[in-house]
Amino acid sequence: MKEEKWGDFIVRRLGDQWGDEMMLHTHGGYDPDDGMADIEAEEILFYAQHPVTITFEFAHPIMRGDPGAQAARSITSPPNQVWNYKLQALTDKQRDDSMCEWLIRFGKPIPQWDWWEVGLKDKKLSSMKELAKKMNDLAYLENHTYKRIHFLCCREWMGKSAAPAFGKLQAPKSK
How far apart are CA 36 and CA 30, in angstroms? Predict the structure, then answer.
């Protein structure tokens, strides 16, 4: 696995090649007054209706590529405008748990996804606008644009203007 820092984001991939698809997996929420972000990709896939919180139990089967996992419920196509989500890093435990699930994907004959996650600590937030800037840098510097972006941010604090304190977001307990 290769891990690189691209501005506010940590990008994980296996091998030297960029994947055709990526997932954005981190905490996130939006303030409706913060506008929209233009994201470049052929498609952005959302797996739950806009006001629905995406839990780790919901996201992990999608990340693994399980046959019975939730299919995308909404797909945007260019020009892609999405809420300017505020994005926050996962906790170390959440990242480790999700990484175990994401790595399962690589043993399967399914599309391989690069993983973009906010790499900022100490309550700092990024945004979809920052993601768009980094993806433009990637297109310029690496000559690569993702075909699909899988949006797997939890949206736990969606619709609130302020994010909860860093570290307060916890992975739901297993049943």
Answer: 10
Stretch 56-79: mean pLDDT, rounded?
Answer: 93
Pull the structure tokens for residue 74: 């909404």
| Cβ atoms 23, 150 nearer than 8 A | yes
Tens-digit pLDDT profile for residues 72-119: 999 998 888 988 888 999 999 999 999 999 999 987 899 999 999 999
Mean predicted confidence (pLDDT) in 124-129: 92
**Buried/exposed 39-68: b ≥16 CB within 10 Å, e otherwise:** bbbbbbbbbbeeeeebebebbbebbbbeee
- E strand or H helix that includes residue 116: strand 113-118
Q: CB atoms < 10 A from the CB of 128, how many?
A: 26
Token pair listed for 152: 């797997």
